[in-house]
Amino acid sequence: MILILTYAKVFTTSLHAMLSERYPGEVFRTHGLQPSTLTTVDRFLAAAATDTQGLRRGFDNDALRPRLEAARRSGERIVILSGVRDPVARSLSVAVQNLEVFFPELVGRTDAEAVDDLARALADLWQRRDPEADAVRAMAEMMIHAPLHWLQDELGSGFGLDLSQPPFDRERGFTLYEGDNVALLLFRHEDAPAAIEDGLGRLFPGETFTVPAENVTATKPTGTLYARLRERFRLPRAFLENLYAHPCVRTFYDEVEIASAIARWSAPDPAPASTVPDTPPAAAVIDEGEVRATVFIPLHNHARWIGSQLESLFSQWRPDLELLLIDDGSTDRGLAVVTEVLARHPEIAATILRHDAARGHGVLPDIVRHARGSILIQADSDDLALPGRIEAILSRFAADPDCRLVTSNAVMISESGAPLGLFDVAHDDGILADPDAVPQMWGAPWIGATSAFHRSVIEAFAPLDPELCPYGFDLLTPLRATLLGTHHHLAQPYVAWRRHPNNSHKRLGGGSRNLRRQEQYGAIELMALAQRIRDVEDIRLRNPTPSLDRALAACQRQFMDFFDRWSRIRNRCRSEEDSASGNASLQDGPGLPPVVTLARGRTYPISPSSALARALAGWPGFHEVEAHHVWTLRQAAFALRITDATARAIVIKARAASASPRTAYFSLDCHEPVAASLTSNDSVEVEIPLGPTSRTVPWLGFSLVTVRMPGIKDDTGESGDARILGVAISEITLV
């Protein structure tokens, strides 16, 4: 099959007309297949009040999807044609072709009357990304900015193609890329049609092609407006220099071509007010449009771990990310480690700040001031990002325009990196939208170190007073997110959370048995609960609703309940001496649950007397061992030691508690899970392939197995039997 997959205005119609005539029934076209594209399209089509037939046809995948899936299953070769184009020149064509949809107020006016307003509106779309945009504006922004992200989203992620190898051939104007059963012809619009015809001749040896001229903007009724727009449209030079420095532009154009484009589209100085709108300073323009998310790292005396955290992030980096690292008064050489790692990664856009002393919540203004992404991804300096974290976060934000916070589960690790189990073994994936539920539900365990939030979670509220709420912003974000939109929680672990005596919550007294330390940490939590009340009142004053009334009452109840508990601890502190064991416990590192070594070819059955069963029962997420099996909770993780280099897989024999099939997922080292349909009738052998351990996981020498049974309603009834939520493991074999 042949798929014409483009971001529009790059010979799409001409290619479809030519190839459909030659290969009838085998040629399909679309401007997008991935959720990151189609979510915005669907929202726009549902909201648009004008005729959207043209755009609707460009994203109609009803006939394409089943044909594409059939080709993938059968291994049929999929030929993809796509193109790139000067981003500014293309945006003019997009704007004029979609005039009625994106700029209906200009329809009916003469070209001379409309051109300056169209230039201003298009310049605004380029220079200002609106995180609160309505559906039409969001669609226009996506179409205009497509050259900065579309290729990676649709061709890189969508079809697994590496567009950096081979490098794009600027001299010929096209390059052929090969993947699994996929061949891509990527051409440059400025070299068409010759580059297309030459590339097609190489894809289909022995055939010749002549590309017709179809859907040419200059020949349409709007052709005069298009010509006037090309004459009048200009952007600030600083903006253009940043735009053409983007990797998704610079890859396809050389220095001379880029300099020519900047000179072509840059405004004279001073710029005429009729052609270029007022813009903020250059530092605030293009970067906000091209940086989708900012990964921010507060660093404080974690020199021994920050290098590994950076490498774990860079192994899954994307060109639409930036790094913001804030050294919050460190006294070790952590900042030196950062600069050494960044020196090995010149492709990373990074901003580094340093405070003379630790500020806690005082870093929030720095994040707002210097972060350019609308999504802020937290990465603590002593933790690790597990494979897939960034994509999982960004896909949730892309799928839900109302999403304001994404959190996940975590694998706990020791100071040295040994796995300690899952942090949360009880909760499934979930989406919270009602602020009523948040103060009650998020007594449930989760970790702020896994969070990524929309910048409105900071900006939509009054600035925090560090003296009233010095610590615990992660105690505020779930409520704030649901006051503004939704909070997505992922049961899959995407962070390795390192537990050690110098954890920030431990330094403040969290988890201590020492009464004085409990009282100190409780005071911090109490201040965060008071801040929750202020947050609800802040939103409620601007938009009073019954839902916010209920949320305020729930926050006030939670504050009073916690105040009662904290007061009792405080009063006990006045009459009791701190115990030495309590003080000593502050320095205790976490214990490592039992880990057994598996021999290849041997089966390890579960029984109350077996070493494997006793080991599993020592991990979070397991019930007590029964006669022939051990049950997990909704999810669990455990480590095994495998020393045989010839072993190829772990086989787990398992079943569920229900006669109806339920799907469980088994994963090794947090990689792609293996799905298994389980019932109570018969045990199923689930084979989990062994592969090379990822360089980003810290527990080298161990293999971490995770088991999940998602989607089961927690309806244990009067029996209270939580086994119905999990999986029964009866034996494990190394093969």
Question: What is the fold's blueprint, element by element?
Answer:
Layout: E1 2-5, H1 12-22, E2 27-30, H2 35-47, H3 53-58, H4 64-74, E3 78-84, H5 87-97, H6 99-102, H7 111-127, H8 135-145, H9 150-159, E4 174-179, E5 182-188, H10 194-203, H11 223-232, H12 237-244, H13 247-250, H14 255-265, H15 286-290, E6 293-299, H16 303-314, E7 321-328, H17 334-343, E8 350-355, H18 364-370, E9 375-378, E10 384-385, H19 389-399, E11 403-413, E12 419-422, E13 430-432, H20 438-441, E14 452-454, H21 456-459, H22 477-484, E15 486-498, H23 504-507, H24 515-542, H25 546-575, H26 580-585, E16 596-598, E17 603-605, H27 611-617, E18 622-625, E19 630-632, E20 635-642, E21 649-655, E22 662-668, E23 674-678, E24 684-689, E25 703-708, E26 728-734
Parallel strand pairs: 1-2, 1-3, 3-5, 6-7, 6-9, 7-8, 11-15, 16-20
Antiparallel strand pairs: 4-5, 9-14, 10-15, 11-12, 11-14, 13-15, 17-26, 18-19, 19-26, 20-25, 21-24, 21-26, 22-23, 22-25
Report on this structure:
This protein is α/β, with parallel strands linked by helices. Helix content is 37%, strand content 20%. It has 27 helices and 26 strands. Helix 1 links the parallel strand 1 and strand 2. Helix 2 crosses helix 8. It is globular. About 4% of the residues have low confidence. This is Putative capsular polysaccharide synthesis protein. It comes from Methylorubrum salsuginis.
